[in-house]
Specification:
Length: 422
C-alpha cells in the first residue's frame, strides 16, 4: 500500500513539474551583454524550464513555446545587489540608539520585513541579492526558504547568517550591567579558535558567505585571526566579506586574503592596488548624500558627517574604478524615505556611479556579472547566456544612454518565470 502511495505521489510530482516547465521565446529588440560589453539587435532567447537554451537572430519558436514580445525594449541580465539587509530598517531621527531595531523587533517580524522587501526589489529588477547579516536569529534563512518554496515572490538569496565581530557587535559604550545583548544580532569571536567556531556555526545554519565587521571598535582583528576565518570558510567553499572603512584593519583584511571589502570608504591607493593584485572585490556601498543625511541620525555609526563622507565615497569609487579593482554593486540601504520603496533607494546609487565617472556599460557589468562572480553564482546567474538560469529584465529606454533608465524596468523574469511584464 505504501509503495502504491509512493508511486502515485511521484506521478503527481512529475505532472506538477511538467506543468510548471514553461517554454518561452523572448523577442529582444536590443540585447545588452555587459559582461562582454556588446549590444545586439533583434535577438531571440529560448527559455525552457527556467534555463536559457539558445540565443540567436534566426531562432524559430518551438510549437509549445509562449512568445514574449520585447521587440521595442532593451533586454539585459537581472540586477544583483551584493550588500543588502532586507530584514533591517534602522530607526532614525531623535536620539534613537543604533540597537533600537533589534531590541524592539522579533525574528518573525524581521522575516516578514525581509519577504516584503524581497518582493519589492525583485519587481524592480533585482533578481539576486546577497544579504550580509543583521537578520536577528537567522531570519534570512527562513525568508529564503519561503521564497524557494514558492510561497512568496523574491530574489535568489545568498546570505551570511550572523555577523562575526570582535567583542561588542556594532554597539559602543553599552553599560556592562546590560550584558552582551547584541549577541541576538552578532557573534562575538576573539581568537582564531573562537572565530573558526563562529564560521562553522554560521555555515551550519545555512550561510553561503561569512560576514565580519572589523573596525567598529578601537581594537580590531589581527592578520592571524582573519586568516583563521578565511581558511575555515574557504575550506567549506564559502567566501568572506568584511565591513571595513580603511586603516590598519583594512591592511589586515587584504593581507589575510578576504574575498571582498565592504564599504572601504577610506581605502588608500596603495590598499586598492593590493586589492587589485589579489583579486579582492570592493563591494562599494556608495551611499548617496541624501541617504547619509538620514542615516547620520540613526545613532551615528559613520566616522564622518555626511558633507565630508559623501565626496570621499565618490572619490574612492572613482579611484578604484580607474585602478581596475573588481567592483560589485552593493547598496546597504537600511533607512526609509517618505514615499519611496527600498528599490527606489537602491537605484539612487546609480547617481553616485555617474558622479564617479564610471561609464554606463561598466556600471551595468558591476551591477550584474561582477557581483555574480563575487557571490559565486556566475555559472548560474549574472549573464544572458546558454545554460544559465533565465534571470532577465527589460525596459522601454536605453540603459546605456542613461543608467537612470533602469528605474523604468517593466519586465522581470526570474528562473524562467515571468514576475512582471509591460
Ligand atoms: Zn551593511
Amino acid at each position: 500500500m505504501a509503495t502504491i502511495r509512493t508511486i502515485l505521489t511521484l506521478v503527481a510530482m512529475l505532472a506538477a513539474g511538467s506543468a510548471g516547465a514553461e517554454v518561452y521565446v523572448i523577442r529582444a529588440g536590443t540585447l545588452v551583454d555587459p559582461a562582454r560589453a556588446t549590444v545586439t539587435h533583434d535577438q531571440s532567447i529560448l527559455v525552457d524550464n527556467g534555463v536559457i537554451k539558445a540565443i540567436g537572430a534566426a531562432l524559430s519558436a518551438p510549437p509549445d513555446a509562449k512568445v514574449i514580445d520585447l521587440s521595442k525594449e532593451w533586454v539585459m541580465p537581472g540586477l544583483i545587489d551584493a550588500h543588502t539587509h532586507l530584514t533591517l530598517t534602522e530607526v532614525t531621527g531623535g536620539n534613537a540608539p543604533f540597537e533600537s531595531f533589534y531590541l524592539k523587533e522579533t525574528t518573525a517580524f524581521r522575516a516578514m520585513r525581509g519577504l516584503h522587501n524581497g518582493e519589492i526589489v525583485l519587481n524592480a529588477g533585482f533578481t539576486t541579492i546577497r544579504d550580509v547579516g543583521n537578520a536577528a536569529e537567522y531570519a534570512m534563512m527562513d525568508v529564503r526558504r519561503g521564497i524557494e518554496a514558492g510561497w512568496f515572490r523574491g530574489p535568489t538569496i545568498v546570505t551570511s547568517g550572523k555577523i562575526i565581530t570582535p567583542f561588542g557587535g556594532q554597539s559602543n559604550k553599552i553599560p556592562s550591567e546590560q550584558g552582551a545583548f547584541w549577541r541576538y544580532e552578532y557573534i562575538d569571536a576573539d581568537s582564531p579558535e573562537v572565530i573558526r567556531k563562529a564560521v562553522r556555526t554560521n555555515i551550519y545554519y545555512g550561510a553561503d558567505v561569512i560576514k565580519m565587521v572589523l573596525d567598529n571598535s578601537p581594537y580590531h582583528y589581527s592578520v592571524d585571526e582573519l586568516r583563521a576565518a578565511v581558511d575555515e570558510a574557504h575550506h567549506a567553499g564559502v567566501p568572506v566579506a568584511v565591513h571595513v572603512y580603511g586603516g590598519e584593519a583594512a591592511d589586515n583584511a587584504i593581507e589575510a586574503g578576504v574575498d571582498s571589502i565592504e564599504h572601504g570608504f577610506y581605502l588608500t591607493d596603495a590598499q586598492l592596488k593590493k586589492m587589485k593584485e589579489k583579486g579582492i572585490f570592493l563591494c562599494s556601498t556608495d551611499l548617496p548624500r541624501t541617504h547619509l543625511d538620514i542615516e547620520g541620525t540613526s545613532g551615528g555609526i559613520f566616522p564622518d558627517p555626511p558633507e565630508i563622507l559623501a565626496p570621499k565615497i565618490v572619490d574612492r569609487l572613482k579611484r578604484a574604478y580607474k585602478m581596475g579593482v573588481r567592483l560589485a554593486f552593493g547598496s546597504d540601504t537600511v533607512v526609509e524615505m517618505e514615499g519611496r520603496t527600498r528599490a527606489d533607494m537602491m537605484l539612487d546609487y546609480l547617481g553616485v556611479w555617474r558622479l564617479a565617472g564610471v561609464p554606463a556599460m561598466d556600471t551595468l557589468k558591476d551591477w550584474t556579472s561582477e557581483p555574480a562572480a563575487l557571490l559565486r553564482v556566475e555559472k548560474q546567474r549574472g549573464r544572458i547566456a546558454e545554460g544559465l538560469q533565465a534571470d532577465l529584465i527589460a525596459m522601454p529606454v536605453d540603459p546605456l544612454a542613461d543608467t537612470e533608465n533602469l528605474r523604468r524596468v517593466n519586465f522581470v523574469m526570474k528562473d524562467g518565470k515571468v514576475v512582471r511584464s509591460p
